[in-house]
Amino acid sequence: MNIAKANGIDLTWDHFGREGDPTILLIAGLGVQMIRWAVPFCEELAARGYHVIRFDNRDAGCSTHFSQHAPPDFGALAAALMAGRRPEVPYALHDMAADAIGLLDARAIDRAHVVGLSMGGMIAQIMASEHPERVLSLTSIMSGTGNPALPQAEPDVMAMMMRPAPDPVSDEAGFLAHGLAFTRRIAGLGHPVDEAAHRLLVLEEVARAYDPGGAGRQIAAMAVAGDRRARLATIGVPTLVIHGADDPLIPPACGADTATSIPGAEFMLIDGMGHHLPATLHGTVADAIDRVAKRAPPNIR
Fold it and tell me: What is the CATH number of the domain that holds 57?
């Protein structure tokens, strides 16, 4: 296990491919760990000539957890936002973007192709807009802009996401059923979930680190992120926006809005895909990332 000091915290990371090749930095989504970027997918990218880095965000996996901060009171958080006040939160998405920059610093990588999924896409967008000198290309997957006029998650999906999971130690079966039901609901009809593989993945995450409070603090960071469209309009690197046509958590209109907000961005809408990156689409998505990366200038290490 590799640990880097970045932005004042510890980030756990690993990598694939040759270190001398252009770097692709993969940023994971809400409450999940770097292992959600499946090894075969990372190897697909490495086989195309990239040095691929994945890492645990703060408050996830084996990176630093902010357990000294209690999980947020979501009712109070929502009330403050509705009243036009910015609530106090342990950290913001800008801090998480600074973590990723710190990881590049720790690895002596000047610039990288940045790929983020869901919350990770929001972090990647901030990297490209606030740290343009460090980003060669941007791929934002299943993400949005924070535009308050856009459609929200389906009500039943939001309810499932906010419902506390059973304890994985005392009720492993209930915990697995809870997670699988949610993943099945958001995955889309065109690419069914590999349920056996998903159970193994969830159990691996629990074995690495289980901290439901971390996901709550990440939700709070997203809640205060605001509308990013003005900053996205400043992005000048080649950009690809990928979204599932069947995404019930972050609807496709959010991906379209991201592409519209970034000058020259390509929008790739995938039929049958929801809020899930199945193995059946690894090659398709890896090809698309490779295509946008090849539009960028050569990497400088």
Answer: 3.40.50.1820
